Amino acid sequence: MAPAWVEHALWWHVYPLGFTGAEPAADTAAPVTHRLAHVERWLDYLVDLGLNGLALGPVFASATHGYDTVDHLRVDPRLGGRADLDHLLAAHDRGVRVLLDGVFNHVGDQHPLFRAALAGGPGSPEAELFRIRWADGEPDWDCFEGHRSLVTLNHDSPRVVDLVADVMTHWLDAGADGWRLDAAYAAPTAFWRQVTDRVRAAHPDAYLMGEVIHGDYPGFVAESGVDSVTQYELWKAIWSSVVDRNWHELAWTLGRHDAFLDAFVPYTFVGNHDVTRIASRVGDATLAGHALVVLMTVGGTPAVYYGDEQAYRGVKEDRAGGDDAVRPPYPPAPEDLAGPDVAPDGRPAHDRHAALIGLRRRHPWLHTARTHVVEVTGTRLAYESRAADGSAALLVALNLDDEGGRSRRPPMRGPSRPRAHPARVASPAAAGRSGRRSHPPRGPVPGGTCWGGGPGRAAPPTTRHPAAGRTGQGATRCAQGSGSRTATVTSTSPATSTGPAATARGSS
């Protein structure tokens, strides 16, 4: 069971080495560079966006990308020193929780303990910490997914349990609120259980989230003792459904997602430091807005990857340096972000994020909401997100049709080929004032929702949503664009009708 504060957590995920423009490789002779202050200067931006958590990528001493750690108790000198991290952890004073990224499946091959193991041979005390085999005096070792420089720890060793539990407790003592456990899927759940039990004994309010790609998510959570895991199934279904014009994939995945929610609350996202950016993946910023609507209206603990809220592009490639495009530097301050002449999608994407994050904050029950698919075709999806206790609900309608009802599969664009589509988030009232005509969706929505008429057009008869029978109120009226790609979120209960519905709208 995750700590109570996680119910309201909304994360901004930042990869510090990229965000701050740090050198790609550490130079042991170089002086400490105090770059973490650059992250701190963006905390007001994080809060203004409506978020309240900072999920940091690696900040500990490493040889290159941060996931080849050489010292878990020392801040990477490319980012600063201990005082710099302590100052960032004080973000609590601004209402911001901080999540650290722990790499405990493996270490970098320059880690002093590994160097000592190689120098001391099979009888050395350090050799116990790794899975080293000695043949004719030559060492060979287990490594992470074929990367020889990422040396796998021996998770059967009690000393490795001690090492990891002590590091995690050390930084929680310093003020961190929790840990993302990198490559958690690669270490045995029995190992994680020993570690998490130790850590929780000292910090019962810490949030522990493991990176798990495939497999039995609920089983991993139950056996390992973590609070949550990364919901890659949902991530894949969201972008794939948009790209393939096949909402059936997402509809099926939402059923799986509901089953996970019976056991734990997944960590949800549409972008992170390891994957192609959502705007590049689906083809444009408007369609990326559809992905955001799903992220913010289904159960889970959502995270926004830095840059996605500005419609950044970036394609991950399977080569050395292939992550660089999705881990770019940010300017010195928010006012230095590129303007509309350079980044025409930036401000609309930011405003869309702010509106949907605001919707999420107004309805905290969405953290554990269950979904019910009302209607699904290849290009149109309507689903209801309902509070676990049935007290509140939202109706979400997503449309991938282009003008005239045509469906088009977009090409994936890299960072050098941005494309602008007008997009905004507005209340139904604002949509009516804009002068755009509003039409009901083509074909009935079983159970119904209310589709408003634009100026000079009578609205179709109001249809009561199934929620109305339980709440005594019909669905809130909202606008739906004609023949263009739209996403609409509508309150269907008194408990959620105090704020306006949000409409993420754009046309191509």
Describe what this molecule looks like in 3D.
The structure is a single chain. The protein is α/β, with parallel strands linked by helices. The chain has helices at 16-19, 36-40, 43-49, 82-89, 112-120, 158-173, 189-202, 217-224, 232-243, 247-261, 278-282, 285-297, 346-362, 428-433, 468-471, and strands spanning 11-14, 53-56, 60-62, 69-75, 97-102, 106-108, 132-135, 138-141, 143-144, 147-152, 178-181, 207-210, 228-229, 267-269, 301-305, 370-376, 380-386, 393-399, 423-426, 486-491, 502-506. The strands form five sheets. Strands 13-12-11-5-2-1-15-14 form an eight-stranded parallel beta sheet. The protein has a six-stranded antiparallel beta sheet with strand order 16-17-18-20-21-19. The protein has a three-stranded antiparallel beta sheet with strand order 6-10-9, with no helix packed on it. The two termini are 44 Å apart. Mean pLDDT is 84; it is low at 412-483 and 495-508.
